[in-house]
Every structure is written in structure tokens, then in C-alpha cells.
Specification:
CATH class of the largest domain: Mainly Beta
Number of domains: 2
Oligomer: single chain
Mean pLDDT: 84
Radius of gyration: 23 Å
Helix content: 10-25%
């Protein structure tokens, strides 16, 4: 059990649109509109024949806050939702995605916990979209629109260090190309990463970026793997291909409009930092989505905020059953539509985690592959009911969740972390590879595209 910490921390993280400037339209006479808390502001008398909701007054601010960080010119969304005519032309599809809660892509279960940067729509907001479409999608008076602030050019308050591959890379795999690039860490003394941001060379191709720390002791393994594959970088799906038993490994993740240096914010919570030592190496995994666009050369960079000292050195704690990883005891038989595995343990029993002391859980991420159906991570408290950290009842590999808890959770020795995962390995749920639907095969834990995982990640600091 002592080696359970040697877990591949992998997340291909999630979607749009958090961190946009706030726009709150004033309620016009006689019309409800979106209130600061996301609900509907009460209406006043404005005439019985006037439309209840209009694009300029009510819908455009909502679409700005929840859609346009991806669906705007130059961003990764396949179509633009920033103008009235464009939204009207796509209204049936847009309404269906919103009502079905597929968009915005917030996969965390609503009854689990509260999170910073929750981009899900409230029932009132969904109802407003439905009402507006049913009412003929009135445009309204442009004078009632509030100017939309520009989207921020960067997520971090400052860039202390920027790393980049030595040359551009041309994606070659379709519809997805997962590529790892080895970047030298230039610092000559111990420093702490307090913020992470990816700077995509081509935002229309780059679906997500994950940054990993590789220690000096493991650097040659990475260089050997890079050397074995022709061209810049090497193919990687689940992880960079090297295991770090101690210290920080996962440094941060980014997806369009949604930056994780821990979670929903580009910057770690105040006072926290991830240690980097001289001689360490950074490996970035870049996911290129080549479904729609022809591949083009890309040179994605990564930026970091750094500090010499922090109040609470922190780390990412990976969580999974070691027997799944090292003992192949996570079988997912071919043809089975409902396969479940669970694991629970008190991680404070293992000194690398917290030396038996309580610790705070700040951010939580979950990871499965293509056959996943649901995943849940919770704390079984010695006293009181379980505390759900993150629950995904409808798993989607393309929109993997990570979230910053609105209130950090205090984990006490004697409590237990519990992970539960569900898969569907029937023919109806098989993925497509190179344009062909695969046949069900017996699956288990693994790093490849058609293997599976059941993994949790938590940003923790010791009390």
C-alpha cells in the first residue's frame, strides 16, 4: 500500500468559459433580466406588448459570460455566438445544448459541493433562453445593450517566466493529436510556482495544455523517450510517461477560457506554491483538435508566476487504488455496460502525504478515459455524513472537470478518501479511432488511448 502515491496524475482539462469580465444589464421597465446572482431580476411595468426578453438587454450579457470565451472570432469554438444574427441562425442547436446542459461544459454535479468559477447556468437562465426562442427571438433596442468588456489578454497578473519549444510543431494525427514537449527549467535556485498559464500559438487548434514537473533524477528517461520518436516532441495521451514518486508533478492545466493552476483560477490560492528545484524539467502536453481545421504549425508557450518563498508549500495529491495501477485489478470486461470499481483509504497513514497531520483540500480534479460513465470523490468523515468533493454523474472525456472548492475542506487523520468509478464497455459506447468504431475489448488501467483510468487529484496544503 505504501506505493499508492506513485500514481500517474493526468487530466485533460475542461472547457470554456470562466474568468470573463462580469456584465450585468440593468433591468429595463417591465422586463426581468439577469441579476448579479445569476437569477432573474424582478420586472417592473413596461407595457403588455413588449417582449419579455430581448437579445441586447438580456441574452447578449448571458452569452458573453457563459459562451463567448470560446465562441467568438479566433477562439476554439467552431462558430461565433457574439452577434444576434449568428445566434438566431443557430438557435435550435444552441437551445438544445443549453437545455440539455451540455453547454456550457460544466460537468460537476450540482448537489455535491460549491465551487469558485462555476460556469453552469441556473434554471432561471435556461428558462430565459427557452422563453426568448419561443417568443421569436426578439432583438430589442441596441441602445439597451451594455458594452462588453474585452476579454483579458492574459490570465496571470504577471509573467515571471515563459518557456517554449525550440520550434513550431505541425500536428499530424486526426481528429486529435496529443503531443509532449520537453522544456528546460532555467532557474538555479529553489522557486515556487504560484500561477500557470498556457499561451497557445494557434487558439483554434489547441484544445488543452497540461504542464508536468520532471525531477533531475528522471530527466534522462524523458530525453530518451523524446529521442526515440522522430520530429519535435513525442506522442503522449495520458501522461508524459515518467512517474514521480515524490514532490510536485502536475503543475497546472489550461483549456480555452478555463485556466487551472490548481483549478479554476490561473493563480494558486494565496500563500500556496509548488516547489521547483534546480535541474528540474517541464514537460507540456498539448492536445490539438484537428477535427474541423487543417493542421497548421503551432508553437504553444507556457507562463509561470514565481516566488522565492511561500507561506504554505503545497502539492498535488494523486488518488487511486495502487492495485488498479500495479496489479491490473481494475478489470472492465468486454461487452459489459455497467462496470464499477471503488477504493477508499486514509492517506495520512503514509508519511509522504502529511506526516499524519490534517491537511486542507483546495482544488479537486477527476480523470477517466473514453469508456467512463461516472466518477465521484468524497470524504468519509469519522463524525458526520460524507463530504462530497467532486461528482461527475455524466462523464465526458472532452470536458474533464477540475474545480476550486468555495471553502477548502479540512481532512483529518482517521477520515477516508473514497473514489467510485463506472464504465460502459458495450458496443454502443465504443470510441472511434482513425475513423473506425472499435469493438469491445477487455480493458484495465493503462496510459494508452484505449486503456482506462479512475484517478483523483487534489491540491493540498498541510495544516
Amino acid at each position: 500500500m505504501a506505493h499508492w502515491l506513485r500514481i500517474l496524475p493526468v487530466l485533460a482539462l475542461c472547457g470554456c468559459p470562466a474568468g470573463v469580465p462580469q456584465v450585468t444589464p440593468d433591468a429595463a421597465p417591465g422586463r426581468p433580466s439577469v441579476a448579479p446572482d445569476g437569477g432573474l431580476a424582478p420586472a417592473s411595468d413596461g407595457g403588455a406588448d413588449a417582449p419579455l426578453f430581448t437579445w441586447h438587454r438580456d441574452l447578449q450579457p448571458l452569452f458573453y459570460r457563459r459562451c463567448q470565451s470560446c465562441h467568438r472570432p479566433g477562439a476554439i469554438g467552431p462558430f461565433d455566438l457574439s452577434h444576434y444574427d449568428q445566434v438566431v441562425a443557430l438557435a435550435p442547436m444552441v437551445e438544445d445544448a443549453i437545455v440539455g446542459r451540455r453547454m456550457p461544459p460544466w460537468k460537476a454535479g450540482a448537489d455535491c459541493n460549491s465551487y469558485e468559477g462555476d460556469i453552469s447556468l441556473s434554471d432561471d437562465e435556461i428558462g430565459m433562453v427557452q422563453w426568448w426562442v419561443a417568443d421569436g427571438m426578439p432583438e430589442g433596442d441596441p441602445s439597451e445593450a451594455q458594452p462588453a468588456p474585452p476579454f483579458p489578454e492574459q490570465a496571470l497578473s504577471r509573467h515571471d517566466l515563459i518557456l517554449e519549444p525550440p520550434e513550431p510543431y505541425l500536428p499530424t494525427r486526426r481528429p486529435d493529436d496529443y503531443r509532449c514537449f520537453v522544456l528546460d527549467w532555467p532557474e538555479t535556485r529553489r522557486r515556487f510556482i504560484t500561477g500557470f498559464e498556457a499561451l497557445p500559438g494557434d487558439p483554434q487548434l489547441v484544445h488543452h495544455v497540461i504542464a508536468f514537473r520532471i525531477s533531475a533524477a528522471k530527466r534522462q528517461q524523458i530525453l530518451d523517450r523524446d529521442e526515440r520518436e522522430p520530429g519535435l516532441g513525442y506522442t503522449c495521451f495520458g501522461s508524459p510517461g515518467v512517474i514521480e514518486e515524490e514532490g510536485t508533478w502536475w503543475l497546472g492545466s489550461w483549456a480555452p477560457g478555463f485556466v487551472l493552476a490548481g483549478s479554476v483560477g490561473a493563480e494558486l490560492p494565496p500563500g500556496l506554491g509548488l516547489a521547483m528545484e534546480p535541474g528540474d524539467t517541464v514537460v507540456i502536453q498539448v492536445h490539438y483538435n484537428t477535427t474541423v481545421l487543417e493542421p497548421r504549425p503551432d508553437r504553444t508557450r507556457v507562463a509561470f508566476m514565481l516566488e522565492d518563498e511561500v507561506e504554505k508549500p503545497s502539492r498535488w495529491l494523486p488518488f487511486a487504488d495502487p492495485d488498479w495501477i500495479w496489479g491490473s485489478e481494475m478489470p472492465i470486461p468486454a461487452g459489459e455496460a455497467d462496470v464499477r470499481h471503488e477504493f477508499q483509504v486514509d492517506p495520512t497513514l503514509f508519511p509522504p502525504v502529511s506526516d499524519g497531520r490534517p491537511f486542507l483540500i483546495h482544488d479537486v480534479g477527476l480523470h477517466m478515459h473514453l469508456l467512463g460513465r461516472s466518477i465521484r470523490l468524497e470524504v468519509l468523515n469519522q463524525e458526520g455524513p460524507p463530504s462530497c468533493l467532486l461528482d461527475v454523474p455524466d462523464w465526458d472525456f472532452n470536458w474533464q472537470p477540475a474545480a476550486r472548492l468555495a471553502q477548502p475542506h479540512l481532512f483529518r487523520p482517521g477520515d477516508q478518501l473514497r473514489m467510485a468509478c463506472q464504465w460502459d464497455n458495450s458496443q454502443a459506447n465504443q470510441p472511434s479511432l482513425n475513423g473506425e468504431i472499435l469493438s469491445p475489448q477487455d480493458q484495465n488501467w493503462g496510459d494508452g488511448t484505449t486503456d482506462e483510468m479512475c484517478l483523483g487529484l487534489m491540491l493540498i496544503s498541510t495544516q
